[in-house]
Specification:
By secondary structure, the protein is α+β, with helices and mostly antiparallel strands. The protein has 4 helices and 6 strands, in the order αββββαββαα. A hairpin with a 2-residue loop joins β1 and β2.
Amino acid sequence: MNEKIAPFEDKMQKSYNNLLEEFGTIRAGRANPHVLDQLRVDYYGSPMPIQQVANVSVPEPRMILIQPWEASMVKAIEKAILVSDLGLNPTNDGKAIRLVFPELTEERRKDLSKDVRKKGENAKVAVRNIRRDANDTLKKQGKTEGISEDEVKDLQDQVQKLTDKYIEKVDEAVAEKTKEIMTV
């Protein structure tokens, strides 16, 4: 891999990783502790991720158990879940919080898969924008650094191959997540 296009590959990889993180927050009927990743809970005046103030486990396929290290955090964690857009009702027994994931309806599954495709499309747009930036940068470098047109063309071909690779990875991730959502 040429050092001139390595930074662009890093950017494409970051776009892909970001997509995978977004997919992790989409719940597909199964309990996934990553749906809590975006939530912050007030811990003595500082917003903290739930995973840093409690033990998060999955005792059953459709349940997340949150056990705060301090009993005083139960209410704060419950409140953070209620005001979030997760659509889950926490069950609080005073020491721990249980999140039970209901079976998804067919309509909700279709909405989620539409959302997955939209996020995938956004990731592909990001990858294509990186390709455009790479090509523009390579053209400018060709003029300023005296790189031959053939060399610039070769580098642009390598960037195109990278783009194709990441677009394919995004398509595979979208197909996999859609299959996971649509599986009853």
